[in-house]
Design a protein that fits this description.
heterodimer; A: alpha+beta; Rossmann fold; OB fold (Dihydrolipoamide Acetyltransferase, E2P); six-stranded mixed beta sheet; five-stranded antiparallel beta sheet; B: mainly alpha; MetI-like fold; two-stranded antiparallel sheet; 3% strand; globular
Chain lengths: 385, 284
């Protein structure tokens, strides 16, 4: 709901990648229950998803949230307890993995150690009885795509982790599946390699145009690569949206906490004026919010979030239509590109601020100094309580 | 002297002493014994008599060949029985894997000879197995299994099958289950996943199992003497007789080295045939 005297604020753009008429993958009411001893654990607890053709779609969540189980049901390694899995509109629930037109890249790579790189990549084509000449051609082209043509005759064990990763990718992609499933494929790589592989994966996905479903617990990875993200927790999808929607407009407190760093402020809605809500937070300071959920009225207790990089820190009281919050610096952390400040804003609430070191690395304020925090009203975002 | 240079040698020393005492010295003693002449009354003189080997081979080539044949057959039976068992424990054993392994090892708590003798009762003409099968008419009345080659081979396979199961199990156990899933994901049915991925990857385990069953079964003499009767003697029985009954130590020692030489040649050609890379490679 917009404030009473409404001024339009820029909305996070709605999904650019709206699923095509016939989604590549669709899950309807999918449940997976595992029996462990006498208990039944619902690893996936009713998931509905539609993944569009050519989309880079991420399932993001902490370990045990059900993201891998969801992917394994798409691959055919697990049968759903309830619900329907469709690939290209065809119901494949109960169809075994070897009869599904999707291929998987495993976190452990799961390369065949007794075969050369080229034989690994050719494995799927051989099982499908593709003519020999075509296998040679497609394997060669695929190895070139992942820049491993010169390693075709090597054994996987002779390759580095990053190279093995690319063999696993080639082995799956060469079959030109209707969707490629990737289960934390970069999890075993070190940071530098992981970052370059993220760009590499994105490039390959653009070139082949195949639907990618990507399971990860790394929010940075998901935000960097995905067209859309489903954030999962406790076997449920908490939020489904583009990276910007997920980051700027977290639908739940879990999403706000899980994606990036969020500052959480408790407050009471006090008034609306000039198209903006006023929210009284700790120590009687007032914060402005451009938009609040529909059920909110004056007097409602709400939780507001604001991202650390959206907050400005200074020693003088800021002017204009901004949220203003006084506080005391309790910690400064220099990280090179930015400096992080912890600011005590009273009532035990702390706000984290990331300040880009654009004009030198001098501190805005030392530990113990009084400072003013400010941010534009549309960066205050209320979480449903 | 630089301390750092000598430390590694000092640390290896106990192993070298152990090897020397319990391997080099006895083998050397046996070798020199095989090249002597004489008898137990007048004593044996070191004459470097190579003729002992010719005598040994010409007198006992039949038993030597039979030993290799029995050992080979027993090893094949061990693969046929052991692989499925190892596969089942590794992939279907669930939480009870260690219990199943204990059951495999349980017979070792009973003496080897006693276990073999129990097969005499099991395989006797009207015993537990044959008697029952004859009673219900599945086998002809006059059939005898004891004191035959199959009885010896069955006994050998029974006694040594754990040595086949354990190395195969060890390889299958640490195989990445995702590798099997990857095979299914790449359009393999269960049979293809087995023949194209599981079996080739587990070959080092089979290789180890073959060594650990073929070598002791070919050299065994207990099974042949308990289950084989007079006409199915193996080279182990010959060595025992020459040594303990005829007291012809040089001949006993010569046959021992002939057997050892044949086994070594066998092992190396086997390793070469399979490809040492394939066999020696340890899969992570």
């Amino acid at each position: 709901m917009a404030p009473p005297t409404s001024t339009t604020q820029p909305q996070a753009s709605a999904s650019d990648a709206i699923p095509a008429a016939e989604p590549a993958i669709s899950l309807t009411g999918v449940v997976k229950a595992f029996r462990s001893g006498t208990e039944t654990v619902r690893a996936v607890d009713g998931v509905d998803l539609e993944i569009g053709r050519g989309e880079f779609f991420s399932l993001l969540g902490p370990s045990g949230c059900g993201k891998t189980t969801t992917m394994r049901m798409i691959a055919g390694f697990e049968d759903p307890t309830e619900g329907v899995v469709r690939l290209d509109g065809r119901d494949v629930t109960g169809v075994s993995a070897n009869h599904r037109d999707v291929n998987m890249v495993f976190q452990s790579y799961a390369l065949f150690p007794h075969m050369s790189v080229a034989d690994n990549v050719a494995f799927g084509l051989r099982r499908r009885k593709v003519p020999k000449a075509e296998i040679t051609r497609r394997v060669g082209r695929m190895l070139d795509l992942v820049e491993l043509g010169h390693r075709a005759k090597h054994r996987p064990t002779q390759l580095s982790g990053g190279q093995q990763q690319r063999v696993a990718l080639a082995r799956a992609l060469v079959n030109e599946p209707s969707a490629l499933l990737l289960d934390e494929p970069l999890g075993a790589l070190d940071l530098k390699l992981r970052q370059s592989m993220q760009i590499e994966l994105k490039r390959i996905q653009r070139e082949v145009g195949i639907t990618f479903v990507y399971v990860t617990h790394d929010q940075g990875e998901a935000l960097t690569m995905s067209d859309r993200i489903a954030v999962m927790n406790n076997g449920l999808v908490e939020q489904l949206g583009t990276p910007t929607e997920i980051y700027d407009r977290p639908a739940t407190r879990f999403v706000a906490d899980f994606i990036g760093t969020s500052n959480l402020l408790r407050g009471v809605v006090s008034a609306a004026s000039g198209g903006l809500w006023k929210v009284e937070v700790a120590d009687g300071a007032t914060v402005l919010a451009a938009e609040l959920p529909d059920e909110v009225t004056t007097g409602s207790h709400i939780h507001l979030t604001v991202r650390p990089e959206k907050v400005n820190i200074g020693t003088e009281e800021p002017e204009g239509q901004v949220s203003r919050l006084p506080g005391t610096v309790t910690e400064t952390v220099y990280t090179g590109a930015a400096t992080h400040y912890q600011v005590d804003v009273g009532d035990g609430d702390e706000v984290t601020v990331y300040q880009q070191n654009a004009s030198g690395s001098a501190l805005v304020a030392e530990r113990g100094e009084r400072v003013w925090l400010s941010w534009p009203p549309h960066h205050s975002y209320a979480l449903p309580s | 002297m630089n301390n750092r240079k000598t430390t590694p040698y000092a640390l290896v020393l106990p192993a070298w002493v152990w090897l020397a005492l319990f391997f080099v010295v006895p083998i050397g003693g046996m070798l020199s014994l095989s090249l002597t002449t004489g008898n137990v009354v007048t004593g044996f003189q070191q004459t470097f008599e190579v003729g002992n080997y010719a005598t040994a081979v010409s007198s006992y080539w039949e038993q030597i060949l039979r030993s290799l044949f029995y050992g080979g057959c027993a090893t094949l039976v061990c693969i046929a029985v052991g692989y499925p068992v190892a596969y089942w424990i590794a992939f279907r054993g669930g939480e009870n894997k260690s219990t199943y392994l204990l059951l495999i090892l349980l017979p070792f708590f009973v003496s080897f000879v006693l276990r073999t003798i129990s097969w005499r009762f099991f395989l006797s003409d009207n015993g537990m197995l044959l008697g029952t099968l004859k009673d219900i008419g599945l086998l002809p009345e006059g059939l005898t299994v004891l004191n035959s080659a199959p009885a010896v081979i069955l006994g050998l396979a029974y006694n040594f099958v754990p040595f086949m199961i354990l190395p195969i199990y060890a390889v299958l156990e640490r195989m990445d289950p995702h590798m099997v899933e990857a095979a299914h994901d790449l359009y393999s049915d269960r049979i293809r996943a087995f023949t194209k991925v599981i079996l080739p990857v587990s070959l080092p385990g089979v290789f180890a199992g073959v060594l650990m069953t073929f070598i002791p079964t070919s050299a065994d003499y207990v099974n042949a003497s308990v289950l084989g009767g007079a006409y199915n003697t193996m080279v182990g029985n010959v060595i025992r007789t020459e040594y303990l009954v005829n007291n012809d130590y040089p001949i006993a020692a010569s046959i021992t080295f002939v057997l050892m030489g044949l086994l070594l040649i066998g092992i190396f050609s086997y390793a070469r045939a399979l490809g040492t890379e394939k066999v020696m490679e340890v899969h992570a």
